[in-house]
Amino acid sequence: MYFKQETSRLVQGPLTQEQYSQKKQSFQQTTNQQDSRQQFEQKSVDFTPPTGKTTGPGQNGPWVMRLMSAKSTDGLNFTRTNQVITDQGDVPDLAVDKNGKIYLYYVGWTVAGEQNKTVVAISEDNGKTWIYKKLGLIGFEGGMAAAVDPDIQILDDGTFRLYVTSDPEDGQGPRTYYAEGKDGINFTKMGVAFSGSGRFVLDPSTLRTPSGWHFFAGVGGGGIEKGWHATSEDGKTFTQQEYKEFVKDGKGYIFTNAIAIPGGYRAYAFDNRTIVSFFSTDGENWTAEDGVRLTLDPSSQLETGVLKDPAVARLSDGSYLMVYVTKIP
Fold it and tell me: Would 201 disulfide with which of 28, 196, 261, 319, CB 3.0-4.6 Å?
């Protein structure tokens, strides 16, 4: 289900009461108006991404958002490609397999005649061109909300592990599930990775380190001013740790994803107009890096209003690809 509103990926940042209410209302509206409570498994199909924005259950959501890309040689200084990967897309996440193939997971609003679906775009030329597929998802049928907010990990044996937000409507709110597959397109639900005991768990992001896994997600409701942080030995079930926040120059930023880089790990975060980064040697303790990675360009005819939800991957040639979200002008 679509759980996001203006800030979309509210990972590692507080949800205001307004944002929490918007997410909850959007979840209820889209649940009622779509086939989100699937009675049959979601099948994998190719599709052509939409062009332009459309209407949705609120003012802000994937129906008015656009995915664009930027590239960098060092993961710090990014240059826009001015490539529109898709319209009506939101909350991206990236992974690169051992052959250099790029997998871009995101929530698409209009997908092959359906709405609010988790999909994947695949590139074999370092992001120059893409093919688009709706995921095949088994296990999220029978009364569960559709699986959204994708976070992807490719394991050492080639297994694709997909973390998503869904809600079985048991009164405990949305939580993070994980599903696995071999081809990056078809997945089977394996179980609950993390639950917030009655508080919303939104927009998961995971990081693997030699000492274990780290989990970050947004907290919905309950007056919590930071974000979820949990750890795991195997990445299948996570145990809650102290809440975390990502602060640079006295300002809180919303965590979106973290990647391994030479010498440690880099996390990317945003405030809706600026993308910044943090560095860690262990995945636990983070330090803000100097400068900004990307800033909203008010003169652009391709983006407007917001700059958010950066997903970054290190490509096979050592360069970095960023996919970010902006509003369609």
Answer: 196
- Residues shown for the chain: 329
229 inside domain: yes
**What is the H or E stretch that residue 67 is in?**
strand 65-72
Q: What's the domain count of the chain?
A: 1
Q: Which two tokens stand for residue 137?
A: 């998802």
More confident residue, 121 or 171: 121
Are 201 and 151 contacting, i.e. CB atoms less than 8 angstroms apart? no
pTM of the model: 0.89
DSSP string covering 297-319:
-TT-SS-EEEEEEEEEEE-TTS-
Give the domain extent around 280. 17-327
In-domain check, residue 176: yes
pLDDT per position as a tens digit, 78-119: 999 999 999 999 999 999 999 999 999 999 999 999 999 999
d(CA 249, CA 266): 18
- The three-state (H, E, C) secondary structure of 197-224, written as one string: CCCEEEEEEEEEECCEEEEEEEEECCCC
- Give a yes or no: residue 72 inside a domain: yes
